[in-house]
Amino acid sequence: MYYNGVYHLFYQYNPKGAVWGNIVWAHSVSKDLINWIPLEPAIYPSKVFDKYGTWSGSATILPGNKPVILYTGILDANRTQVQNYAIPANLSDPYLRKWIKPDNNPLIVADISVNKTQFRDPTTAWMGRDGHWRILVGSVRNQRGKAIMYRSKDFMKWTKAQHPLHTASNTGNWECPDFFPVSLKNTDGLDTSYNGKNIKHVLKVSLDVTRFEYYTVGTYDTKKDRYIPDNTSIDGWKGLRLDYGNYYASKTFYDSGKNRRILLGWANESDTTDDDVRKGWAGVHPIPRKLWLDPSGKQLVQWPVKELETLREKKVQLSNHKLNKGEKVEIKGITVAQADVEVIFSFASLDKAEPFDPSWADLYAQDVCAIKGSTVEGGLGPFGLLTLASKNLEEYTPVFFRVFKAQDKYKVLMCSDASRSSLKNETNMYKPSFAGYVDVDLADKKLSLRSLIDNSIVESFGAGGKTCITSRVYPTLAIFDKAHLFAFNNGNEPITIETLNAWSMANAKLH
């Protein structure tokens, strides 16, 4: 949340080790979303209503500028889940270090119609036109994911609505629901309670079964308290995702200081638990992203917050560099293991785009990427970046595009392929070919890519943030100053690097 000029990040954390368990609400604060000060945990199991765990939730700023946290408490060894609240002990402390859990908790207990062991992660509250507060809690029944709605006049006494805000069959348990308005007019953010004209609403849920961050864009019927996805949004596992890679349990908040909506997510490790224990830590927060509705109204767009650019140091540039089939160019002169790279690729023609195999229509994009990897010669593509590459390419994580011709339109596939990212060959390592399609007009025959590279993570943004993919990778050779960065083309159509700007990135300060 953003409160009195300070960003507060609360996150699930085990103070006793780099494995899941003993979960508390860790708390860090920042003035710029980049440099952070870690504080003592804000919430930890201490009362009868959260004795077995303090799980995810959200913050809401109440009238009178009073923050309140709603969170899921675990009551017993059977994982019975209830919704609790906590308030700052001292509003004059600029960092709100201490939080109190009043004795009238829990505020919400599951009734008989609700699966009380799959009943968690309350959203930021919003106020309806009737002056009543509303929140959603994620749940499931018979594999139908649910966003259960509760209403309250005073934020203390909550009543379950007759029907959920929204449900979707065969989606499994919904975790970390998020529901917020987006502007049809500009990229500004809107307060969660905003209910004016020229808006759409977005419902995002984290899918427990697939670990997808799936969302739809649609209309919120405030009279019936129902959400209806647009017919351009697939409502299910094949739907749009905030990120097609290693990214989960995300949450947005309205930043009233800069009038924007900010998305924060979590990227867990993809190597083994033993590795986590050896490292002494597990899981990272990707760079905060500004989020808004694409002018088409069909999807969200995301971009790293502007403040990230304060970490940019040494810069190298390349322009109008042609890459024929099989060619690559090394980007030298910066610390490529910790870099920010922005590139615009252009091509003279779409004629060589290879046909899209109709049998792929039912596959996820990452399955197509596994078939058509960065080394499989194509027509228009594969072209892109080889990140965290060893000198002789024993290891590399390619981030690239391929353009296919599908009946009357072109399909752009974007991949971030971890399959060759590490020579470490532990069977439990997760090295997928992450991928998503990019809904982009190729009339100008250009595709842009931005990749943030930071040792074990590569965050990539295709076509100005229309498709985002986060990969966690663990090279053994391509580390620190032994890492290399290349731009490449393995397609028949020559590609021009119109502009490439790359920066060494400084370390953020941890006070």
From TrEMBL:
One Pfam family from the record: Glyco_hydro_32N
Keyword Hydrolase: yes
Residues in Glycosyl hydrolase family 32 N-terminal domain copies: 1-304
CDD domains per UniProt: GH32_Fruct1-like
SMART domains: Glyco_32
Keyword annotations from UniProtKB, A to Z: Glycosidase, Hydrolase
Alphabetical list of Gene3D superfamilies matching this protein: Exo-inulinase, domain 1, Glycosyl hydrolase domain, family 43
Keyword Hydrolase: yes
UniProt family annotation: Belongs to the glycosyl hydrolase 32 family.
Protein name: Invertase
